[in-house]
Amino acid sequence: MGDFWVFGYGSLMWRPGFAHVETRRARLHGYHRALCVYSWVHRGTEQRPGLVLGLDRGGSCVGLAYRVPGELREEVVEYLRARELVTSVYLERFLPVRLAGGDLVEALCYTVDRTHRQYAGNLHPAEAAATVAGAVGVSGANEDYVASTIAHLEALGIRDHWLEEVGRIVAPPAA
After folding, report:
1. Is 92 one of the annotated active-site residues of the chain?
2. Which region holds residue 73: left if phi is over 0, alpha if psi is between -120 and 50, else beta?
3. Among candidates 135, 145, 108, 109, which has minimal Cα distance to 47?
4. What φ, ψ does residue 97 adopt, rounded to 5°?
5. What is the distance between the alpha carbons of residues 95 and 4, in angstroms, rounded to a whole number?
6. DSSP class of 71
7. Angstrom distance (rounded) from CA 113 to CA 57
8. Which residue out of 78, 84, 143, 154 is catalytically annotated?
9. Tens digits of per-residue pLDDT, 56-75?
10. CATH superfamily of 4-170
């Protein structure tokens, strides 16, 4: 099988964790980045959930696309399934993404399942920030996840005003 692409929009942008031979800025149409998934494992617990990002319907999302050599397909997909499908809140799909430069490729994406009980829906920034604050899971503090995502988006020149507002509420700038 030939090479394939994986689309990252959150922690996959700053910690992909799999071998790849190329990284390109990319845009996925029809979905947007949102803190819309209650995290019961990585950034919270079932008793004290945090929030993690999901690709939710509507709009578009700028992220990174990784080209993975075809001979690593099975290994990388297995890794991503173990990482992303822990509680089956994401749906694994191949969707068209537009790479920087204009090429359109099919990329492996993990979109949120709106029927799953971990789907948080469209939250107000203050509500999202209250959920994030103090939540901790096996991968660490929820605040760190949000801050790292925002920092990496900023470093890439990607603005996400809603997420930035959540970050300001969770960790206001020092006076």
Report:
1. no
2. alpha
3. 135
4. -125, 145
5. 12
6. G
7. 10
8. 84
9. 999 999 999 999 999 999 99
10. Gamma-glutamyl cyclotransferase-like (3.10.490.10)
